[in-house]
DNA sequence: GAGTTTGAAACT
DNA sequence: CAGTTTCAAACTC
């Protein structure tokens, strides 16, 4: 995961580099320098001022063809941008509140492979110099508009009519430099073609050298926010990703930097773009001082921004820091995607000022989650796409070319003309982000398959753009709203609630126990709804379907049907359902505290050994109160502690970190060890031995592996034996069933006996016919009987012999 | 299986 | 936020 081209790294502050290194640790493949597939020119071209220039790195390899004066550098590399379809304009506007002036610059992207509407790589160059002006608002807007659209402010389009318009300056007044990669591959197909875009994974990194720390990043979908991109085409709707840079409260100066990336799609069906709806906003975790450790940027809704996201791990106070623990390390929380696809979390590092903001992008979006109801098998494409848009504004399409191949992927749904944007933010702590979906439309039906993003322990934001055909609305309720459908992409939480506000106790809906479903509670009094653990719902679904009544008119059936088997704590649904949960033994907590694993996992106690258990439907009211109490103490109490990262368990992270003192984090007392993950910088453990290079840990791992191998071997042997026995029984069943005994006797069937008797009778008749004496007749009959027996025995022996060979 | 140890959760 | 208490699981014998 390369956020910034290696060259740029050299000019970055140490803090940034450190952070990046950290980030790379989490992403093994990223440890190598930025993918060099795209020849990346050198950093030398990036002007190094007294301060680190603001850099928006869209592609790893970039050569800012323009300008050295720029303090703000926009670097676009790689395939992500390539996803920009033909005839798109990119408008970048940077303004600073410090100055009233608005600088405008125009860059034209030229493509080497122009005409091919379908594919081909095109090289885009930034040919137009920026016109430095005084900063205004520090706002960067990258606007992509339809190819055929005419942008008043943009220069002539090239063959493919891709334009890059850059306006504005950095807060320091330096011009913005937008560097596009030499090889800017286009999407396989233009929008109109509807083909798949095959962008290479790209990373997006924004480095801001501004003196003011960045506080927030916002992704906003707003047509109004398009600056200078208004083209006649604009029947198109736009999706805008807005990154806002705000100064910390403590800092003087209202410096605000926004990065808005918008892309207008050619949607003929589009009637109006007037809709200005901030659909998704992103948060940026920032630090007040450049010296401080880098923070993680969380992209989410602005309204959902909480202090939590701003908090960083305080490692400095730790007595003992494990090797993995570095104060500057940015921990990327991982999420357990349960999609069939391999979860890929791609951290995007955005460095603003001297801070590095890490945005983790995951491709975990399952096709279904990607949102489109289109039946076509959605394939997650390795193209970084940042799409933010209202559900009701399917036409909006935003692509942020983020990307470094290994990390960033763009989600492309075949057959869908819309890009799906997934923004995942890695945070050092438990940053919890919720992305609220603000839609201007009235909710009618819930479309579970197109969840708005919901993040979990690993902050993740994914906002699939819903195609017009399939758009059903997502309830535009604020977090506090009583009625909303929240589906966490992987974390297991899906709530279905009535539109009518719940009286009295109303827990934080987004943080209820995993899989919790609100259903009409039989005995919950006026509460009206019972909080049902997903597992319980699953059980009920086996027999009696839980009635998830909703007066709101939501169509909940589909959601309900899918919610029951949501992953839990990083475990796949299969794991959660098949894994027999250990019965609890609570005695004093009434199983209504987080001490109780059942309760903590959002499950009802079942076959437990607990005493005075209230964790059941009979005490739903108490249970609901307890849930609320837990949520009051910790809003994310029921969220999975272990998030899954990109690949493998090693990528998983404990959202909170352990606090072990004596166990060395090598016993199950340690939550990290128990989860089979290594401790990270967010842990506060002392004498930690649960790190990568720990010999103790390796020893344990080897032992565990050996034990596991033995178990597997035993299991395999047992399986084989069982199979053989079963096969043998199958083979011998006919004989056994017919004869019911040892092989020779199994041949004495009724038919054989009758035949034998016939032979004996025939011999008797023959003797009678020849008037033989009775003695002789008896003798002959006995001899015939002997012959029959010999034949039977011979046949049996032969059959046994054959069986032995076959078996 | 009883007793001890441990660290998260809860509490102050 | 830090220190203490409570709690249940993990561990030991």
Automatic annotation (TrEMBL):
Keywords for the protein's UniProt record, in alphabetical order: Nucleus
Residue ranges, annotated region (Disordered): 25-48
Localization per Swiss-Prot or TrEMBL: Nucleus
One GO-annotated biological process of the protein: regulation of DNA-templated transcription
Biased composition (Low complexity): 33-43
Gene Ontology annotations for the cellular component aspect, listed alphabetically: nucleus
Pfam hit, one: TCR
Annotated family: Belongs to the lin-54 family.
The protein's name: CRC domain-containing protein
Source organism per UniProt: Hemibagrus guttatus
